[in-house]
Amino acid sequence: MKSFKRYMITSALPYANGPVHIGHLAGVYIPSDIFTRYLRAKGVDVISVCGSDEHGVPITIKARQENTTPQAIVDKYNAIIKESFEKFGIAFDIYSRTTSKVHYETASEFFRKLYDKGVFIEKTTEQYYDEEVGQFLADRYIMGTCPHCGNEKAYGDQCEKCGTSLNPTDLKDPKSMLSGSKPVLKSTKHWFLPLDKFQPDLEKWILTDHKEWKSNVYGQCKSWFDQGLQPRAVSRDLDWGVPVPVEGAEGKVLYVWFDAPIGYISATKELTPDWEKYWKDPETRLIHFIGKDNIVFHCIIFPAMLKAEGSYILPDNVPANEFLNLEGDKISTSRNWAVWLHEYLEEFPGKQDVLRYVLTANMPETKDNDFTWKDFQTRNNSELVAILGNFVNRAMVLTKKYFDSKVPAIKEIDEYDRETLAEIPKIKQSIEKSLDEFRFREALKEAMSLARLGNKYLADTEPWKVFKTNPDKVATILNVSMQITANLGILLEPFLPFTSEKIRNMINYSSKSWAEAGTDNLLQPGHQLNEPELLFEKIEDDVIEKQLNKLRKVKEENEKANAKVAPPKDLVTYDEFSKMDIRVAKVLEAERVPKTQKLLKLKIDTGLDTRVIVSGIAEFFEPENLIGKQVVVLANLEPRKIRGIESKGMILMAEDIDGKLQLVSPLGMVSNGSTVK
Predict the structure, then answer these.
(1) What is the pLDDT at residue 573?
(2) Which GO terms describe its cellular component (predicted)?
(3) Residue 158 pLDDT
(4) Could you say which of 90, 107, 171, 284 would form a disulfide bridge with 144 (CB–CB 3.0 to 4.6 Å)?
């Protein structure tokens, strides 16, 4: 592999219409952070940039829903996302935003250069227009019936029920989401990037020159090439975004897919005056960390933009991950089916590395994976507590007990000691190989194998039994154990930065230089250690149950929101309705009907008489809670015998969409026998 002078790392810009969730972390930000921390520990010249993607139609929709401005929406979520990343230890050199002045200038200059070079195609097309509002409609502002599955709430770009990609003109009975009116087709001019002209170069660059790319990335690109690239609009009719910087483009902005990746460049510009060497020098290695939904934009479209501009380097790798599901269901912002990072940080204080560990161990590198709270608990208790935490704590406590927290010198060394020490550089090399090839799950597993090695070594050598008869042997055992601990303090840094720092503080060794790891003499004899402290704590069942209950509540709320009310019954005449004698009555007595689960026997005062009604409401009401309540009854229902009890009438109930019954009662007290009209 070619060696580079420096690295430019980008992480997909999170969309600023909601907070960050675990799917984003596992897909993009944790792998990006692991790789960046690894490079920094090696002393490599590296810049890592990210920022909020703050333009586009979903922002304007969110603003309209919340009766506020797009700027207020992006300000709110930019602050939440940025703070969450900082607290979680995602170490970007800069976290910027696409509403910054520098970004507007950079994106405008980029467009203008391509425009002046004659790269774009100008086209006039027919697009839907809302005459009531006086505005062209973005695809997401159009709703209609999907021609494939009949879903009446399909958007102009996609049906979320069947997943089919759509054009707005595919919809049956299209309606504007702004006014509810039927939109009309109207001519509008836009600029298109002719991707088809770049296909031969891009095809060679990816399919021939970058066969080492991950199979999911390579395969998706090949699929697009096989279909044939088509010109793609770089502008749209909208009032939120970077204005198209040419005459006659009033009311038009840069399409967010064109604007957003330029955010990587503008963020680097904000960070350093030397930004060009990170973007234009062939000695720089550019790597994009993204999720699979962004593969085409970062492997085909953005490179086409960079090639068209002419002075930029192209990405050397785009190690995209697949998706992470939650408890067997697809993570969804709109359905609130997610574990939100800012909420996790509040509910699990000091446990950033637990989530980092679980998401790395379960990272969806080659296929979609599933996060479950039970797995989170198991990995914390069985791996972080029982393996890593247990080894470091035992090594520290035993050294304190037998050698007053000073690293002892090696005195008696045998073959097993030498074999154990020889494993340290091998493990380091395995971690490096995995990280260099973007296999982060495997790299973490290798790092944890060092803690497993230490645990096994202590269990096999049993220094607590040997000390009375051979303290010199224990000195060797604990020296070896502390060298393993010191190596963990460096080798865990990319994965578990908070834990790594705790270890280094405990062993009084501040360096996290990767070059120093892999040796068996990091801590010299006599080196003073600090006080031991526990790295992790067990997570109990009640903590996990609380999170599962939270998700159950979300699922119930979604089911309610999606449930349909009962369809209307056939029409009745006024004469038919007027035959019903509906009155207010008072419950005098209530008891369960023996040997039944659903039936209550109610004695009621109808104002006309005192009678008995048998009602199938026992699952929803305790008998004693009904006594004294006013209810509404159908008083002239023909009597019938139920379980041998003559029932004269019917109690009227309202049934919720989840099947729960509620009493129908007057708001205030009225006379028994009052008629309902």
Answers:
(1) 86
(2) cytosol
(3) 81
(4) 171
Which residues of 58-183 form beta strands (DSSP E)?
94-97, 121-130, 135-136, 142-145, 154-155, 172-176
The DSSP H or E segment spanning 461 is: helix 440-461
Domain ranges in the chain with CATH number 3.40.50.620: 6-115+200-221+255-325
* Long-range Cβ contacts of 217-223 (<8 Å, 24+ apart): 217/295, 217/299, 217/318, 217/319, 217/320, 220/292, 220/295, 220/296, 220/299, 221/295, 221/296, 221/299, 221/300
The rounded distance, in Å, linking the Cα atoms of 15 and 28 is 13
Amino acid in the structure at residue 480:
V
pLDDT band at 550 (very low <50, low <70, confident <90, very high): very high
Q: Which two tokens stand for residue 252?
A: 């038009």
- Nearest C-alpha neighbor of 51 from the set 263, 291, 318: 263
DSSP codes of every residue in 351-369: -HHHHHHHHHHT--SSS-E
Residue 565's pLDDT is 65
**Delimiting residues of CATH 2.40.50.140 domain(s) in the chain:** 574-663
Which residues define the annotated binding site for Zn(2+)?
146, 149, 159, 162
Which residue, 658, 455, 677, is CA-closest to 561?
658
Residue 657: predicted pLDDT:
67
Range 585-602 average pLDDT: 93
Place of tokens 């479209």: 301
Tokens representing 200 are 């031969």
Where are the CATH 2.170.220.10 domain residues in the chain? 121-191
Picking from 636, 639, 593, the residue whose alpha carbon sits closest to that of residue 616 is: 593
CATH class of 121-191: mainly beta
| 403's tokens | 């050698």
To which residue do tokens 């699922």 refer?
A: 555
Tell me the HSE value of 651 on the side-chain side, using a 13 A CA sphere: 33
**Domain range 574-663, CATH class:** mainly beta
**Is it the case that residue 658 has pLDDT exceeding 70?**
no
**Spatial separation of the C-alpha atoms in residues 136 and 138, rounded to whole Å:** 7
Task: Indicate if the pLDDT at residue 164 is higher than 80.
Answer: no
pLDDT digits (tens, 9 = 90+) for 8-32: 999 999 999 999 999 999 999 999 9
pLDDT (mean) for 312-335? 94
Looking at the domain 371-516, which fold is it?
A: Isoleucyl-tRNA Synthetase; Domain 1 (1.10.730)
pTM of the model: 0.84
Query: Mean pLDDT, the chain, as a whole number?
Result: 94
Annotated binding site: 146, 149, 159, 162, 333
243-249: average pLDDT: 93
For domain 6-115+200-221+255-325, give the CATH number.
Answer: 3.40.50.620
Binding site for ATP: what residues are annotated? 333
CB 626 within 8 A of CB 602: yes
Percent of the chain at pLDDT > 70 equals 99
pLDDT value, residue 350 = 97
